[in-house]
Input
Amino acid sequence: MSQRTEGAARRSERAQAQSERILRAAQKCFIEHGFHAAGMALVAKTAGMNPSLIYRYFPGKSAIILAIVERQLVHARASIRALHDASDFKESMIEAFCLWRDADPDMMNAALFLEMSAEASRDPVIAAGLRASDQAIRDELAAWLSASAADGGKGLPPELARIRAITLQTFMEGLAIRSLREPDIPLAELSATVTDFVDRLFSNPGLGSVTQ
Amino acid sequence: MSQRTEGAARRSERAQAQSERILRAAQKCFIEHGFHAAGMALVAKTAGMNPSLIYRYFPGKSAIILAIVERQLVHARASIRALHDASDFKESMIEAFCLWRDADPDMMNAALFLEMSAEASRDPVIAAGLRASDQAIRDELAAWLSASAADGGKGLPPELARIRAITLQTFMEGLAIRSLREPDIPLAELSATVTDFVDRLFSNPGLGSVTQ
Amino acid sequence: MSQRTEGAARRSERAQAQSERILRAAQKCFIEHGFHAAGMALVAKTAGMNPSLIYRYFPGKSAIILAIVERQLVHARASIRALHDASDFKESMIEAFCLWRDADPDMMNAALFLEMSAEASRDPVIAAGLRASDQAIRDELAAWLSASAADGGKGLPPELARIRAITLQTFMEGLAIRSLREPDIPLAELSATVTDFVDRLFSNPGLGSVTQ
Amino acid sequence: MSQRTEGAARRSERAQAQSERILRAAQKCFIEHGFHAAGMALVAKTAGMNPSLIYRYFPGKSAIILAIVERQLVHARASIRALHDASDFKESMIEAFCLWRDADPDMMNAALFLEMSAEASRDPVIAAGLRASDQAIRDELAAWLSASAADGGKGLPPELARIRAITLQTFMEGLAIRSLREPDIPLAELSATVTDFVDRLFSNPGLGSVTQ
DNA sequence: AATGAATGAGGCTTCATTCAT
DNA sequence: GATGAATGAAGCCTCATTCAT
Output
């Protein structure tokens, strides 16, 4: 590796580290104040750097918003994957709610998720990103649902699998809203709800009972 | 009616008409740009009036936001009521989705709904309003689910009714998000999803075990 | 008196009453908030009338300020006259301080007095008014000081009387400032100060001791 | 001095210079228009800078007003100190009057002094500042008056010294008002007044009885 | 790479005033 | 004589961004 290349690499490393610092700070601020109410000055202070410096790594605020959105999509996908990798499906969904609620400022976050979704109706770039991500998630979910039980799937016929994937997605997104509007709902009640929902969705009437 | 009284009545009429004009304009702007990104100047221009005039009818921007939020809550309640007044439950839910999506700028609106929900995690006044409304909706829903079939209800035992009310609420809110992130989803697919979901939720098998 | 004239007279009466109402309200507001910080709306509300109505009686805010200034000048002259009509000169001066301080919203008022004086350095109309009033006061004061004791005066030679009039005026105006900056000064201390001041000013060294 | 330190020092210098520029401009504007009538835009233009820039150096308008007030208090204290450091007391008081009148836009200013005093009856922060400053001035004055003649003092007994300090303060403040209301008073007349006043105040006859 | 200084557009709101009735 | 509606200018202040170093 030539010195020059090495230098470039090192610079690139640093650049990425800085970008990360900025994004983490931005995410925290956006969660706490919303995209528009959080100012660049606050983001910079949260990241422990000078506002001007941010412009070395991002062309502007909306670029940061976009990056945050993409980050969230990655998290979302990971969270879905965790869902069907889990041994206990129901518990895993309840955990998902807790994840929504407890706002690890570096993970998926419900407030951010909602604001992103609302923004999709205004910014076509964001809309496209979300749509793509949603499709990917749904495909993954459907694949899992239609896979044979031997492969860790639920053995649903493909068409139904697709439908159920939508149902699952919709319900989980609904949980995001619940986590914001009712942050102090008793976990027992929520747990009962999820259990009932999953039971009904994957039980007897012929189509393969999958509970547990 | 004395002249004075008539005058007062007319004044009141006008005041209410103006307030309405402002709220409609504000709602439009908030849908298109979000609570914080929409400025008072834009709202005024949309309402076709001078910005200062708005302050004769509202003490400030946040009062307008609050009024819009409350309006939405009223619509939400109405929409739920329509749900269980309908002869066909499934179709009614699909219509609800269309309502979410088609954004009559004077009715319930998905983007607004999401932004409200996100804002609840920051503004305690809004949070309280949403919580109260949600509780009312849920009670109404549960009452309906636990009413006897003769009374147009679903005859569920009260505990289960409550759980299912949460499920329904969550799912419908999830539909709001779907309507924003996938506004062009084929209606057939959505229809199949809702049908499946409702069938599963309200089919015979022992009424479903409320585990845990 | 013809009907017409009588009507005019009655109208004029009413007009004057309204003007008075406005001026009293304005004075109260100006004392509490200052000339510029008190708005026409507040004045109107204080007067119990509609803001627009004020413009029937005054061409604008500055006209009201001017009227208030003139009112104050009348009060000032009255207050000075009270000074040398009083049997006990010292006590009368102490009372003057209390008058400054206790802000009868319809009499002379220290805050107003200062604001007027400051305004004189900006508005030539006000400046002229104040100067004229000050001259009149001083002439009156000097006349009293140079009048023979038989006439209730102090019997000072005219030149000295003029000088002493300035001194008195200056000292009393100083009291206005003290009353604002030290509203809770012990009355005993103030009393001692005034007594000493008057004693020194009108005592032995030949020029006619006048104390008490 | 390291580069960093040097940088910091230079920055600090600049910051202070800018603050000074703002304060000088603000003082000029406040003198010319009053605290409330002078807008930030005018201050900025007078200082030759962008209005927003002011907020890098002051958190808001009232902070500037406060800074100006404190500045004036410092000047006031200096002016009093000059009074009793002077060899000729009377002349020094006359000079003080000229100082009041001639409005060096960077020194003590009568209009500002009055407006400050009036504002004290409304803003408790300003009130506290003025009271503290007045007390300090009075203590200093009293100390001087009660010091022995050998120490350059007037040798008054402490109690009387305190009373006379109030008298002097009051009279000098009265001069401030005179300087505004009668800026073109003949200096001879004023000089005679001050001379007479001082002579009377500090002439022999038994030191004056402190009645009551 | 990083900083503090600077800017101009725009944020929300209040003002004194005029208009129509 | 009196009112509520309406207006445009101006109020203070914050924002995202760029500049010079």
